Amino acid sequence: MQKQETRNFQSEVKQLLHLMIHSLYSNKEIFLRELISNASDAVDKLKFKTLSNPDLYENNSILKVQISINKKQRLITIKDNGIGMTRKEVIENLGTIAKSGTKDFIKSLNDSLDKKSEINSQLIGKFGVGFYSAFIVADKVSIKTRAAGVSIQEGVFWESSGEGNYHIANINKKLRGTEIILHIRPKCDEFLDTWRIKLIISKYSEHISLPIEIEMYNDKEKKYYWEQINKAQALWLKNKNDINEKEYKEFYKQLTSDNTDPITWSHNHVEGKQEYISLLYIPSNIPWDIRNRDYKNGLKLYVQRVFIMEDAEQLLPKYLRFIRGLVDSNDLPLNISREILQKNSIIHNMKITLTKKVLNMLMSLSKNVIIYNNFWKKFGLVFKEGPAEDINNKNIIIKLLRFASTYNDNSEQNVSLEEYSKRMIKGQKKIYFLTSDNYISAKSSPHLEFFYKRGIEVLLLIDHIDEWMISYITEFEGKTLQSISKQDNSLDEFIQNKDNIIKNEIKEKFQPFLKKIQDLLGKKIKKVKLTSRLINTPAIVTTDINEMSTQMAKLFAAAGQKTPEIKYNFELNPNHILIKKILTIKDEKYFSEFVKLLLEEAILAEKGTLEDPNKFINRINNFLSKI
Fold first, then answer.
1. Which range (87-96, 207-216, 497-506) has the least confidence?
2. For residue 194, what is the enclosing H or E element?
3. How many domains does the chain have?
């Protein structure tokens, strides 16, 4: 060795090394991702420079990364034949962090220590500091390197224990490139296992575009040999026409660890202002926790074929979190982190394009009714978050929604608004719907009586999210959506045009009766009126068009939020036998009990609960005792 010297690390490097060694204990495996990524970068730089200077290749050897393990000496060696480094470059790259904002980065890393290790690993992955992750698993790191195009005598040796200084010297190095020797810490034995290293490379570096080899030993022949671990060609980089269906499916299984075939996929290469490749899959299996908004989507982010992060939630909106796949960008920096992703304009534009791509996939899928219905059964509840979350794409989202309906005699949600519109009867101007806790209560709701009689289809919204979702959908292709449990003059006019009209003399006859009930119930109700909506039911309650519905109030209550008291309209069927009977009652007490019983029945049918069910039961028992 010549020109030996000991140099001190830059102060920021000392801080960084201290954090690496003493604070970051989880997700240690990322050290290998970073070192292989650096090796890949070194090869890419060599390829670029040889375009203008072919002599830098020096020989015709295949560009690759090689890894060897010496369990006895507790060493891992990672070697590449890329561009290499000069002595000056070693000092600049390994002794300092030549990057503005380094102090902010150190602070971010420090602040993240009490958060998930995943965040820590992404921070480590910032360009310029990835090398130092080697000290998470190694108590000493040695490097031998030589830059392409310089003499054999200009090789460089670098070594440090990460304690504040490093040793550097010139050495003879026959081959260009860099060799990193990790002296593995006592509690990191797992990384001395060949199969563990293979698994890490398969996870993070499977699609690095140069071969990654590991040294193996043949017991029979008693000799060492090199085995390639990765495929060295990313499937998504191939032309779509050169990839068959089986390869797409096998890649999906490898990417997601899902042993079932995906429903469909979309493979696209975007060029122009931005360049990236996306490979998006719609799975056939539903994760058990996907309905949780905190569920992380399945998109993996690569930058120039290097795996960056497992679940880049910034690439798609939450309502599409069921999508699996990857995005490989040529425009994003290798120092990208979750924090940067949130503010990055490239990511914002990619999100817009990827979202439209997924929605177009679903539109194509919807043409196959059987397959799309299968998709909807699994992911429809998540997709229903879309109208509220994605205003810009609301029109296409609405077309993809599916509902249960009175048109079918089952609870399957397979009716689109487009199909509903085609079945609207003459004179019908609105799309009618009913929200309820479940299919059985919706199907038997008294609100539906007139609609059943006249064959007018009503959408049955039976999922807990439906009331919230429908509040963001006011119309479809010029047709207003209308709840049949709300007061609406146009609905009353439409019903009267199609069914028995309450004649003026009947209205006049009932006016004193309605006033008497209004006075009796007082503030318990908003208004008493006659209705033409009912056939077999004596009374219902409704809410005004602009007031909170019963189902929305339930949603707020379930979320622990206070809701305003709902004041119902009490609507009576003048043709029902019980209403006619009440009309003749002279006994004031009996009249009062009868009216209150009908009101409680109507509220029970609407809400499914009563504030005082025991009072209601006692009232019924009193009536039964007089039979």
1. 497-506
2. helix 194-204
3. 4
CATH value at residue 242: 3.30.230.80
CA-to-CA dists, residue 433 to 343, 482, 497, 535, 626, angstroms: 40, 6, 20, 19, 40
Using the predicted structure, report yes or no on whether residue 128 has a pLDDT greater than 50: no
Q: Which helix (H) or strand (E) holds 109?
A: helix 102-111
Does 392 map to a domain? no
Judge whether 386 lies within some domain: no
Structure tokens at 458: 């009503």
Candidates 270, 271, 254, 252; CA nearest to 262 is 252
* Integer angstrom CA distances of residue 545 from 335, 378, 436, 481, 571: 53, 33, 17, 12, 15
CA atoms within 13 A on the CB side of 311: 15
Average pLDDT over residues 577-581: 92
Q: Other CB atoms closer than 10 Å to residue 400's CB: what's the count?
A: 20
CATH code where residue 203 lies: 3.30.565.10
For residue 386, give every residue at least 6 positions away whose Cβ sits within 8 Å of its Cβ, in sequence order, or none: 317, 319, 320, 393, 394, 397
Give the CA radius of gyration of the chain.
35
Q: How many CB atoms lie within 10 A of CB 56?
A: 19
Residues 447 and 506 in one domain: no
Three-class DSSP category at 47: helix
Pair (222, 256) in one structural domain? no
Looking at the fold, whether 100 and 133 belong to one and the same domain comes out as: yes
Residue 345 domain boundaries: 235-367
Q: What is the pTM of this model?
A: 0.69
DSSP 8-state symbol, 415: B
CA 318 from chain center: how many Å?
A: 4
Q: Label residue 250 by pLDDT band (50, 70, 90).
A: confident
Identify whether residues 326 and 200 lie together within a single domain: no
CATH classification at residue 433: 3.40.50.11260
